[in-house]
What we know:
Elements: H1 4-16, E1 36-41, H2 45-57, E2 61-68, H3 71-84, E3 97-99, H4 103-109, E4 116-119, H5 126-136, E5 139-142, H6 150-166, E6 170-172, H7 180-190, E7 197-206, H8 219-225, H9 231-234, H10 237-253, E8 259-265, E9 278-284, E10 290-297, E11 304-311, E12 314-318, E13 326-329, E14 340-342, H11 351-365, H12 372-391, E15 395-396, H13 397-401
Parallel strand pairs: 1-2, 1-4, 2-3, 4-5, 5-6, 7-10
Antiparallel strand pairs: 7-11, 8-9, 8-15, 9-10, 11-12, 12-13, 13-14
Helix pairs in contact: 2-11, 4-5, 5-6, 6-12, 7-10, 10-12
Amino acid sequence: MLKRRDFLKTSALAGAATLVSSLGIPAVHAAGSDMIKVALVGCGGRGCGAIRDILSADPGTKFWAAADAFEDRSKGIAYGLREALDPERIDVSDDRIFIGLDAYKSAIDSLDPGDVVILATPEVFRPLHYEYAVKKGVNIFAEKAVGADIPSLRRIRAANEMAKEKGLKVAVGLNNRHYNPTAEAIDAIQNGQLGDITGLWVYRSHAPNGSAPVGDYSPLQYQLRSNFHFDWTSGGWFVGALVHNIDICCWAKNDYPVSAQGLGGRISRKNKDQLMEIGMAEFTFADGKKMVVQTRNMPNVWHTFQANIQGTKASAQIGEGVGKPQLYQGFDPVSPTRKAIWEPKTAPNNSYETEQGCLVKAVREGKTYNEMDYGIQATFFAIMARMAVQTGQWLTTDQVWESQFEYVPNIDTMDINGDAPAMPDADGNYFIPVPGEFPFT
Length: 441
């Protein structure tokens, strides 16, 4: 089991290196070539954004291969970017457009050591794809979250030890770690401008997420195209919605919780999916301080996406959804009468582009660079929140790390034409966990 103090050390080092003022890049990268080839595995919206970001971050990168379970996505991004961007940077020939659940192997195999693969499929596949990329010796950008359940996190953790041994460069899509105003605010908090932290709150509240049309897709195919709406694909809404700001709060406190309990479920949602409408988890740290995270996915509700941190001297509003983090007088950073006492001096930056630039810079310079430890830890606590809500139990981190509950034991051999891990009933409805009945292990 990973030691808590080791994660804290990793988090502190990552935070110190985040405030980026320059991405000066040498002419030659570690593989001995000016041009770094990039393969994209997972050609949905986040994958499309990530490939654009890495091409923008470094002119010495080229889009080399595309892989997706679906032909329209794999071909769509390759053909679309050929028309939209510099054609010399979009070098995805038709024989490097790969389709199917095993397409990731062909895309990664097309790279040379020192090149980069972007892993942007639904979260359930991240450990499988990460493991293969590590074995092949390529550098990796892994989109958050990095797993859907605890066994998958143990798998990616083992693969990451191999990545470290090989000296591979690894970035994780917790982009707020690379947003300069956030990094400056974290520095102010850790230097005592809030005083002692007394409590932390994470909010994500907005109108409901709609489901895509089922069309002619099988349940498995439909769920892969609507991955945020199903627990097995994404790890559940807590994982997709709250992982960023859980990470930000733990970074600010320079600590991780030791237990959690929660509640939530569906009230009025009729969509044929598993999306949680409301949820709240209360984490407790070893010093007794609390972090409360809540999400709401319903019509006509307060719309907000932020993290608030309260201290003995002041309070802060920070995190994903907050373009300008600030510290406020008093203890209510949401109040309309709040008075700012601190704001960042650094200008906002494109954190998505910056995180890609940091990865490529590390590849070119051959320096040690691996963000996966805090990617695993952030994902772990988002999964822990989901587990506390769905089981209705009070859980410790030690209990959760030992969990054997696995959504897709056959992930390595999943067939795109087979059944989904979550199959609908005769009325098209999907299983919804009931607290007190849903098993923990």
